[in-house]
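Possible regression after last week's pipeline update?

I re-ran a chain I had predicted before the update to compare outputs. Posting the input and the new output here so someone can diff against the archived version. Not blocking, just want to make sure nothing changed silently.
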Amino acid sequence: MAKPTDKRRGTGRAHRHDAAFKHLYAFGLMAWDLMEVVLPKALFDELDPSTLERLPAEWFSASLDRRVGDCVWRVRRRGGRSLVQPIEFQRRPERLMPLRLATYTALLQEDLARQGQLDPGGRLPLVRPVVLYNGVRPWRAPTSLAADGEAAWPAFALVDMGRARVEDLPVNNAVAAQIEMHQGALAQNSDGVLGRLSERLGGREHRALRAAFVEWVRVSVVPGMVPEVSRLKGELRKIAELGELQDMKSLVLKSMEDYWQGQVAEARADERALLCRQAGRKFGERAAERLSAVIDGVTDPERLAEVGDGVIDCGTEAEFLARLQPRG
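New output (post-update):
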């Protein structure tokens, strides 16, 4: 029974991880900052951020085959043309990703044509797909449909969050701060990265985006750095600033503390269950039931250690039950 439970838990974590990414990039500021990261500067400078619009990420072929992407944004360029950026979030390298994105691009453009939303003169928009990869292994899968010796086929921009050079990323950019956090900046330089992020996401207008960012930290970053949480608490409590920076730090700190407390509570519950099982096997069911009532809700590690010593040291049920009595 344990295996299916573990599998379901893993699936649930993966779903929350994907949902946190999609929610974060449902905000135009994140899409804009990602464009700054992946596009050539000359092309990025042509874009008008006030025209950002999110497009549907679901398409149907002529035979009604359904394709669903993660996120798509469109923005106008000087001169009336436009740029479309499909964004895919990946935790594992995918060999057929170029083919998948080529299919998405074709269906997306067909959909725009059907709705009369092509660029002036009936021209197709410029499509620049992006894969935001946050896996453990380096991405060694293809990023283009081009075969050896052939001319370049349409490709996608790969952002490998674990290996991107932070010093090469734009300043005052939320995606750059996200990559820093993914690479461990919360443990190494929490004040620095949170300061840069809050500078970019300050103000009432970005309150919802800040909350989405904190949720991504809680779901995708904190679980991988539990051993660092105790030290991070101390660092993040050094809040001398006021206003939005304090707001961001407080939210991240609370998220980490909530997660850490949940982990501790779960570990203590497992420890209590193990002690009851061991007492039952040595002294019988009555001793296990009595122990369960005595240590219900106990989280003090020293008290639980004393009970464990009692299970080992005591020779009889009566001796063990007497040892459980409160000390005078």
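Follow-up from reviewer: compared with the archived run. The CA atoms of residues 17 and 220 lie 6 Å apart. Marking as no regression found.
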